Amino acid sequence: MSSVEERIRAELEAHPIVLFMKGTALFPMCGFSSRAVQALKAAGATDLHTVNVLEEPEIRANLPRFSDWPTFPQLFVNGELIGGCDITVELAESGELARLVADARKA
């Protein structure tokens, strides 16, 4: 396993909710990342941990291979890939994201 994969795994193990995104939760650098953050906050994700892939070029280059998901943002809950912006927003609209967030806090 590469050191980049180890760093990705360490992020996922250390935090129940991780969003690999462009920018930060306070200053998203793309519309998709911004919408994902808004959906997560609305779902109660107060303990959201973000990784700015614009400042982490190795993670940006390797995460798509690690997760088998080509685009950013990428949401992980309890180490499991949930998906990108569209899936995150759809889950928020259905109420499922709030359940995932609540369950992540219990785990």
TrEMBL record:
<keyword id="KW-0408">Iron</keyword>
<feature type="binding site">
    <location>
        <begin position="85"/>
        <end position="86"/>
    </location>
    <ligand>
        <name>glutathione</name>
    </ligand>
</feature>
<keyword id="KW-0676">Redox-active center</keyword>
<dbReference type="InterPro" id="IPR004480">
    <property type="entry name" value="Monothiol_GRX-rel"/>
</dbReference>
<dbReference type="InterPro" id="IPR036249">
    <property type="entry name" value="Thioredoxin-like_sf"/>
</dbReference>
<feature type="binding site">
    <location>
        <position position="22"/>
    </location>
    <ligand>
        <name>glutathione</name>
    </ligand>
</feature>
<protein>
    <recommendedName>
        <fullName>Glutaredoxin</fullName>
    </recommendedName>
</protein>
<keyword id="KW-0001">2Fe-2S</keyword>
<dbReference type="InterPro" id="IPR033658">
    <property type="entry name" value="GRX_PICOT-like"/>
</dbReference>
<feature type="domain" description="Glutaredoxin">
    <location>
        <begin position="17"/>
        <end position="82"/>
    </location>
</feature>
<dbReference type="GO" id="GO:0051537">
    <property type="term" value="F:2 iron, 2 sulfur cluster binding"/>
</dbReference>
<dbReference type="Pfam" id="PF00462">
    <property type="entry name" value="Glutaredoxin"/>
</dbReference>
<dbReference type="GO" id="GO:0046872">
    <property type="term" value="F:metal ion binding"/>
</dbReference>
<comment type="similarity">
    <text>Belongs to the glutaredoxin family. Monothiol subfamily.</text>
</comment>
<feature type="binding site">
    <location>
        <position position="72"/>
    </location>
    <ligand>
        <name>glutathione</name>
    </ligand>
</feature>
<dbReference type="InterPro" id="IPR014434">
    <property type="entry name" value="Monothiol_GRX"/>
</dbReference>
<feature type="binding site">
    <location>
        <position position="60"/>
    </location>
    <ligand>
        <name>glutathione</name>
    </ligand>
</feature>
<feature type="binding site">
    <location>
        <position position="30"/>
    </location>
    <ligand>
        <name>[2Fe-2S] cluster</name>
    </ligand>
</feature>
<dbReference type="InterPro" id="IPR002109">
    <property type="entry name" value="Glutaredoxin"/>
</dbReference>
<keyword id="KW-0479">Metal-binding</keyword>
<dbReference type="GO" id="GO:0015036">
    <property type="term" value="F:disulfide oxidoreductase activity"/>
</dbReference>
<keyword id="KW-0411">Iron-sulfur</keyword>
